[in-house]
Write a structure and sequence with these properties.
Elements lengths: L29 H16 L1 E3 L4 E6 L3 E4 L9 E7 L3 E2 L5 E2 L5 E9 L4 E12 L5 E5 L2 E4 L7 E2 L1 E3 L2 H20 L28 H29 L3 E4 L4 E6 L3 E3 L6
Antiparallel strand pairs: 1-15, 2-4, 2-14, 3-13, 4-7, 5-6, 7-8, 8-9, 8-11, 10-14, 12-13
Helix pairs in contact: 2-3
């Protein structure tokens, strides 16, 4: 400052909504009050879904849950529609009806069940606010057990039967094959005038043996082809749409409004 007066000490000023300061210089600014009111409204509108809560919904799209080795690493996405209020601890409820829950599922051949894991929970409020939060939950079926029971569908039986048939024909062709046998001639010079098994390479017997051997090799390759196809095709667990499923929340989630960026 130009004058020699010492500056006043800094003080913390508390601004209350709808209240003015004692002096006429400083008043409660309207933008700050509106921002604080909006923050409080958003904070009061958030709903927290604690761990152990139960969300009941129906499966909108069916699923053929894979049971292969990579099924757990690459699960199939599914969509659930929440049809009832969420059951919270201590007999509390949260109105999350008609919200959507995206989940991922895979099949287990030993249990003949499909297992679902919750991923994303989304809602649209009546005032237009959008809620989209990640949700960690697992699904239980109508019988109360973990996972949803389904039908096992396997197409490997036909391929294995064709592979067995090709292998059988391979062995059957070997049974009728003909092989030339070398002969040791011990009858002297007179015996050489007769015909020997190696005299004609294109005899009817050699042609028959060659044809059967060729068929056997083809059947062997065909058997390997069917076996390779059988390894690529794995059973699936069929789960129909409109199945009622209960999701149990494993980690508490706050249903916060998604603010525009």
């Amino acid at each position: 400052r130009a004058n020699s007066q010492a500056p006043a000490a800094m003080q913390i000023r508390v601004i209350r909504e709808g209240a003015e300061q004692s002096n006429g210089k400083d008043k409660d600014p309207a933008p700050n009050s509106e921002r604080g009111r909006s923050n409080r409204d958003h904070a009061s509108s958030d709903v927290f879904i604690p761990a152990g809560s139960i969300l009941t919904g129906v499966l909108l799209n069916g699923l053929d849950a894979p049971t292969g080795k990579k099924a757990k690493k690459e699960p199939m996405p599914v969509l659930f529609r929440i049809k009832k209020e969420a059951i919270l601890p201590n007999r509390f409820h949260a109105d999350v009806r008609e919200c959507f829950l995206l989940a991922a599922g895979f099949g287990d051949l030993s249990a003949e069940r499909a297992y679902f894991r919750g991923e994303t929970f989304s809602c649209v409020r009546q005032d237009g606010g959008v809620i989209e939060v990640p949700m960690n939950a697992y699904a239980t079926g109508e019988d109360g057990k973990n996972g949803v029971r389904g039908r096992v569908v396997s197409k490997q039986g036909a391929l294995l039967a064709q592979s067995m048939m090709a292998g059988f024909l391979r062995g059957f062709s070997d049974a009728f094959g003909r092989n030339q046998i070398p002969v040791l001639m011990t009858g002297g010079l007179g015996a050489l005038s007769g015909t020997t098994p190696f005299q004609s390479a294109f005899s009817s017997q050699s042609m028959e043996g060659g044809a059967l051997k060729g068929a056997g090799y083809a059947m062997e390759r065909l058997s390997h082809f069917y076996m390779d196809m059988a390894e690529e095709i794995y059973p699936v667990i069929e789960v129909d749409a409109t199945r009622q499923v209960n999701f149990i929340v494993q980690k508490g989630t706050a249903l916060k409004l998604k603010m525009p960026s």
